[in-house]
Amino acid sequence: MALKITEDFNKARLVDMRTSPTPQQPPSGALSAISWECPPSHLWKLNVDAAVDRSNSMRIGVVVRDSLGKIATAATWNLEMYLSPSEAEAFACVLGLKLAHECCFFEIVLESDNIE
Q1: β-pairing, 108-112 with 44-53?
Q2: What angle is formed at CA 44 by the lines to CA 22 and CA 102, rounded to 5 degrees?
Q3: CB atoms within 10 A of CB 99
Q4: Which superkingdom (predicted)?
C-alpha cells in the first residue's frame, strides 16, 4: 500500500498544484472510507503511513499539506528493520514529526490510519 501511495504521489506532483482541486476523497486503494479533511487555515496537516513485511523491512511515507490541500513536503523511507504494524505506525509518526520540524512546520495536525 505504501508503494502505491508513493506512486500516486509521484504522479500527482507532476500536476500543477495551483489548479488541482482540494483533495476530498482518499486515494484509490485506501482502506479508509473517510474523506481527507483540510486542516484549519493556521495549521498544517501531517499524514503518515507505514507498511511492514516479513522480510525485516518496512516502508514509511509522510506528507504535509496546507489548509488548501496543497503538498508542502513529503518523504518516503525504506528501512531494513521489522516492527509490528502498530510500532511501525508510531515510528512513522516520529519520522513525520521530525520531517515537519526540520521543515519548520510547527503547528500541525497529525493523522495516521492506525486505530490503536
Answers
A1: parallel
A2: 130
A3: 19
A4: Eukaryota
